[in-house]
Amino acid sequence: MSILGNRVLRREDPKLLTSGGTYVGDLDLPGVLSLTFVRATIAHGRIERIDLEEAKAAPGVVGVFSHDDLGLAPMPPGMPFLNQEMTRPLLADGVVRYVGEAVVAIVAETPGAGADAAELVVIDYDPLPVVVDPLDALKDEVLLYPQVGTNNCFALQFGHDDTLFEGCEVVVRQRILNQRVAPCPLETRAAAALVEPDGRLMFYSSTQTAHGVRDTLATSLGLEPVLIHVITPDVGGGFGAKASVYAEDIVTAWCARKVGQPVRWSETRSESMLGLGHGRGQVQDIEIGGLRDGRILAYRIDVLQDSGAYPAIGAVLPFMTRTMATGVYDIARAECNSNSVVTNTVPTVAYRGAGRPEATSALERAMDCYASEIGMDPAELRRKNLIAADAFPYTTPTGTDYDSGNYVGAFDLALEMAGYEQLRSEQQARRAAGGSRQLGIGLSSYVEITNGIPEGEYGAVEIRPNGKAIVRTGTSPHGQGHHTAWSMLVSDQLGIAIDDIEVIHGDTDLVPRGVGTFGSRSLQVGGAAVNQAAIEVIDKARTLAADLLEADVADIVLDKPAAAFHVAGTPAISRGWGELAQASLDQGGAPLMAEVDLSSPGASFPFGTHVAVVEVDTETGNVELVRHVAVDDAGRILNPLLAEGQVHGGIAQGAAQAMLEEFSYDAAGNPLTANFADYSIISAAELPSFETAFTETPTPRNPLGAKGIGESGTIGSTPAVHNAVVDAVAHLGVRHIDMATTPERVWQAIQAARSASEGGSATSTEGAA
Amino acid sequence: MHVTVTLNGADVTYDVEPRTLLVHYIRDAAGLKGTNVGCDTTSCGACTVLLDGRSVKSCTVLAAQADSSSVTTIEGLAEADGTMHPVQKAFHEHHGLQCGYCTPGMVMAIVSLIAERGDHELTETDIRQGLEGNLCRCTGYHNIVEAAMAAARAPELRS
Amino acid sequence: MIPSSFEYVRAGSIEQTLDLLNEHGDAAKLLAGGHSLLPLMKLRLASPDVLVDIGRLAELAYVGDGGDYVAIGALTTHDEVSRSPLIAAELPVLAHVAGQIGDPQVRHRGTIGGSIAHGDPASDLPAVALALGGTYVLTGPSETREVRAADFHLGFLETAVAPDEILTEIRLPKMAGGGWGFEKLTKRAQDWAIVGAVAVRLDGNGSVGVGLINVGSVPARALSVEAAVASGAGAAEAAARADTGIEVTGDLNASAAFRRHLTRVLVERALAKALA
Predict the structure, then answer these.
(1) What structural domains and CATH numbers belong to chain B?
(2) Cα→Cα distances A732→A367, A373, A434, A607, A766, Å
(3) Where in the sequence is the domain holding A123, given as residue range(s)?
(4) CB C254 to CB A743 under 8 A?
(5) Residue A49 · residue A121 · CB < 8 Å
(6) What is the pLDDT of residues C105-158, one digit of tens each?
(7) Taking 70 as the threshold, does the pLDDT of residue A769 lie above it?
(8) Residues on chain B bordering chain C, Cβ-to-Cβ distance under 8 angstroms
(9) For labeling, which of A391, B103, C21, C85 is most exposed (least CB within 10 Å)?
């Protein structure tokens, strides 16, 4: 009876629930000093003067450093496609480009001493013009990098076909804003560094990519990677934003080497709101065309990506938007062009979905706008255009090869679970009654790309003489439960009990190679690597057993429940895993172990349909999410408990983007939502319990049949909630409301629709949403 | 200044600055790292502990204000023999945690909610409203609420 | 996150508190529940040299029957207010509103006196006291005086409490079964009101008290609304005047125009409940 597919409770929990996790801020580091940064308070300006004298003399201060003290080269943009001249100094070099940019580093005996000293640092700025709106930045009037001559850091232009919408009876256009959001993991960024007695640099990092941290530190500090030991303790959430290495990480390491003592940096939330990269930030212009009977023929999306002040991975995400542009629909012709521009704001990075929520959001809004235009129910329109289940593998007009899918199956199940027809009846009844609490129903059918990067992953399984197994993985969990999931895989292969399997991750000495956890890749490439290593260790064990039992390898069988090998037909004479491990050591000194560097099996494409039900108060604009139904398909599910958890968390973040969260700036580049009171991450009181189900359409691309699930919830939920809000007030003539659908935005949309209809140009359609 | 607290049942005294927040007293002076800091605006609740039996955000209490009071943290919840408190157990059984950072505060908040309900049966709405001050980014709250509902029905927690 | 350093003194009595305030003047701030002051100090928006902790003055935490009013000690927590049987019976609007402030942890520490003395127009309780026509007892070194809630808020975060005085008691006239309504629009449940309204029927003769939350720079009564109701207007008609005479500004959560609209809507809803 296989354990795979079961709701196995997490092995990570007992410690987390009783003594708590050990995050970077919890590590016991004798003599550790505290690192505090002084950050820019204006969005764009030349640094005229930095006065550090008072700070240096403050009690408990060990060192105060600015750019010229570091002697380190700036960080390149990190992605080769980005404009390589837009480099990022580790501390501001003569100019600051966004509020929050680190300018000065203070090493002090305590965080309090550091905070006190920070107040004594004097920085005089000569303000420069500021550009915040990417539409303004595109004009290249205010330049962040005058020597470069443009704000455009990455253009993905494939050309514009004027005939794209030929033959279309209907073409609908809409500008859509996919707003900037902040990832907000509960643990802010943190790092600690110390120089070991042997001269090696020990670096503790709250990261999603331990080996990436090591390699970046090596390059930046001019050290061989082998001289750096990165350890990842427990990480309190990442959501993609901790897959980047930050300037502050490198400065932490530099400071430890400079002062010769351990240094820890643990940022406050207010710092993190301006330091951890932001997510999303696209201006989208969509055009969707087709026939009046509902057949969609062509789709165009032009993307303007807000990169923030220093181009990072966020700037290249339009590539992923283009990859998934046409989603689940069989659209013959499509076009996606993009520009990424720098602005005087926090740099954008990968954030749960990273370019794919943006694609789905735009397309699903387009579908509802199209449905409204032709007077068709949005469910009917979608069903008419879904790629059929027998059409796989399927290549999209933007060149993406989908592996497998049953979009109609997920769609029908979601609508059934939601009771779609009944919801529409209730909506009609409420509209007829004309009260202020109106119902909105929103749909979202999505497909997304997981494991979209070409890198593989490392996995190793070693058996110890005591019969226990040690798993080494290159993945880097931060809540996903890999210790449970990988030990399930290995236990299933080897027959060793889960509790006798130790999983090691995030330590670059103990795990020789690794890529990390992001992009929903870990199970299909990291788990698959561990699984493969287990299979290979069985082969090695069988050879050892054959030798010990003086039999032919072909006659050796693994009795999993007994966790032992015997000759076929004589189960009483066996050798357990521990004995074979000892034998391996005795024979040649090598442990009984297999290491696998699994090449990437290629991307896989999970999909699903979400249905959101909202109540909108048409007088106050208040939105309440009353139900959320999610059907997701990530191929074969290893542990439904863990998979559901990922979907739940994703739905919360996705719904939050639709109706609640937005990182705002004023025109001078001052952030308006730079703490947890002003930037409202969603709480339990704003959410219902979710109604979720999985369908399982395995992928042929990896032996586990598994696709990624980590980002699906977010990708599927945002458009459903967004569409639901617009749907709730569509009968009043509202056609579109930008996210976040705050009370004011909803109210403004209703007012505008009322004015428009009073002015004589009625645009509302009956029947359909 | 010296601040004395009954911490998880044991009297402790530490010499701290007046400006020391209770959360830093717990973490740095007393060395109990389970309670976490997640924000600086009293918004997230990761620092929630029990002060004289009631949930408080320990980041918004000075250690000095807790002098002579009793403080219970996540470390003080399980029995001496390691048996988990019903809330801890329910979190495990219902997958109510992922990265674990908000978890200690979330658990303590729920312990307090359940303790204060009196005869009232906690509904899902009661739990969701009651957790308005505890933010989580990983779980979407669904399983946390399930765990809280299950724990609320545990016989050991019925008065 | 870490406040600037300060000297900490725990006051053992009201008298000692007054002496300390007199001694330190502007350099000292009172610490009650700390949930208005400490958040400011942690962001270094406030850096008093001396904190006088009055949190243990048990003599200031009580709910008592004053005859035609309920007397509430300034250090009574929001949680205690929300659970008090006397307040539930005589001031049900207060019990309800106190039970919705912030979140449970905040309610366990925040005090009615601390909240009112802080004078934030976005706080819920000042509006309730205004609607009920309450008074505040201010104790100084030489005298104790009573100030009407209506005269208490002088400017943004500025109240009638003199530097050498403490707010010691809140007196709220009993509602005698009169109807009431409370409407608050927030982003999330734990957030401050975007706009809020409290309406209380004060007697059987069409007299109502209406308090506004986060409309303008001070906690305010909607005097025009009260006058309209007194002269016979219904909820909708009266509420149309809700933003009259108040300087309404916009912020991140509501433009001035939207805030005006919300004020009218929420006042109407609160009034409708109060007059029902």
Answers:
(1) 2-75 (3.10.20.30), 86-157 (1.10.150.120)
(2) 19, 15, 11, 33, 10
(3) 13-130+189-274
(4) yes
(5) no
(6) 999 999 999 999 999 999 999 999 999 999 999 999 999 999 999 999 999 999
(7) no
(8) 1, 17-19, 21, 37, 40-43, 45, 48, 51, 54-57, 59-62, 64-65, 67, 109, 112-113, 116, 129-130, 132-134
(9) C85
